[in-house]
Design brief:
Layout (H helix, E strand, L loop, with lengths): L1 H20 L8 E5 L5 H14 L6 E5 L4 H13 L4 E4 L8 H9 L3 E5 L11 E5 L1 H15 L5 E5 L7 H19 L3 E3 L3 H5 L8 H11 L5 H14 L6 E6 L3 H12 L4 E6 L6 H8 L6 E3 L2 H16 L8 E4 L4 E7 L2 E3 L4 H6 L14
Parallel strand pairs: 1-2, 1-3, 3-4, 4-5, 5-12, 6-7, 6-8, 8-9
Antiparallel strand pairs: 10-13, 11-12
Bound molecules: beta-D-glucopyranose.
The site of beta-D-glucopyranose has 11 residues, from loops.
Length: 364
């Protein structure tokens, strides 16, 4: 009998918890705001949050901003009205999100910037992130390690200038690529701004901004595709052949790769990526994308929720460093990344339990 009651109690508790996760009108302790459902990266974050929250006793709600700062502000206001105590937010636009988190801060809510840093405001308490400089450096290093000979045409692409990470990724890539551009291993194929700065090993934010302004994809695979098409149309024959492409993430890498693979004057291409998106893992298995940087979202989710729970319990979250956001030094917890290519894709992404083998074809 006792056992039966406890089973019943457990069942009731889990219903309560599940109801809490998808909370409708009631009180919510942790609000989570993600930038868009249109990119698999952020749908993955949602899935990993949901998995982590299955066991949580705290009520949470996840809202998407669909690439709009106005919608993001509305989401934050909705969550404030539900009584959240902690806000976990990956901003669509790092600077524009300032006013949303300032509104939260005014209500005494603890703000955790998630993956992307919210800039130019003091209303950010913590930052959980991957090592984004290392992401960019790994992308650049892969191109260096796998390019053959001298004078290899290098096509540069970057993320959205409204995302602080886009600067960090490019900065990391530039730190390793620049010496190899200076010594003639690579020849910049598509950016006069990068060409003008090719002898500078460290770029200022303004200089990075100039290059980004020219080679941005805005994190949009379509924009990336159009830019790649325009670049290839303009490129002389000596900028084709065996080429290297710095692509900032998987979504843009796939569409850029599709463009390069249909140009008959391009004999081979190396192309970087990041996020270990399902479709890009298949591209890597098929030899259509060279590498990706695996950012284990489970760790980021764990760190963010761990911080949130510390705050709810009245404890001070542990941090490992800080990031200056243009206004303050934001205490941060940083996670390492893993470089994935055809050789280790199975071990890192399937045997590790991140994906199922059945989600891919040709994986031996
Ligand atoms: C994230 C990347 C993502 C990109 C586009 C960046 O801030 O760190 O993982 O691919 O945004 O959404």
């Amino acid at each position: 009998m006792k056992k039966k009651i406890s089973i019943l109690l457990m069942a009731m508790m889990s219903i309560f918890i599940i109801a809490g996760c998808n909370s409708g009108g009631g009180k919510v302790s942790v609000g989570i705001v993600l930038p868009t459902k249109d990119e698999p990266r952020w749908v993955q974050d949602e899935a990993r949050f949901k998995a982590a929250l299955e066991e949580s006793e705290y009520t949470t709600e996840i809202l998407f901003s669909q690439g709009s700062s106005a919608k993001e502000k509305e989401n934050v206001e909705t969550l404030i009205s539900k009584g959240i105590e902690v806000l976990i937010i990956a901003p669509h636009d790092g600077a524009a999100a300032g006013s949303a988190v300032e509104a939260a801060k005014k209500e005494g809510i603890t703000v955790i910037s998630y993956d992307r840093l919210i800039t130019d405001t003091d209303a950010v308490d913590y930052y959980v992130t991957f090592d984004s400089i290392a992401v960019g450096a790994a992308q650049g290093q892969y191109l260096i390690d796998n390019a053959e000979g001298k004078g290899v045409p290098l096509y540069l692409y970057a993320g959205a200038a409204s995302d602080n990470n886009a600067f960090l990724f490019f900065e990391g890539a530039w730190s390793v690529l620049q010496p190899k551009i200076a010594d003639g291993t690579f020849v910049i194929a598509n950016s006069s701004e990068a060409e003008a700065l090719k002898d500078k090993s460290t770029l200022t934010r303004d200089e990075l901004g100039k290059i980004l302004g020219q080679v941005t994809t805005n994190w949009d695979p379509n924009e990336a595709k159009n830019k790649a098409q325009t670049n290839l149309t303009a490129a002389a024959a000596d900028l084709k052949g065996d080429v290297a492409i710095l692509a900032p993430n998987d979504g843009t890498a796939r569409s850029i790769a599709d463009v390069f693979s249909t140009d008959s004057a391009v004999t081979s291409y190396l192309v970087s990526g990041q996020d270990a998106e399902l479709a890009s893992i298949q591209y890597i298995i098929d030899g259509k994308q060279s590498m990706t940087v695996f950012k284990d979202v489970r760790t980021l989710v764990q760190d963010a929720m761990g911080m949130a729970i510390d705050v709810l319990d009245g404890n001070t979250p542990e941090t490992t460093g800080s990031y200056n956001n243009g206004s303050i030094d934001v205490p941060a917890k940083q996670t390492n990344v893993i470089v994935v290519n055809q050789e280790n894709v199975k071990a890192e992404l399937v045997e590790s339990g991140y994906y199922e083998a059945s989600e891919f074809t040709g994986l031996d």
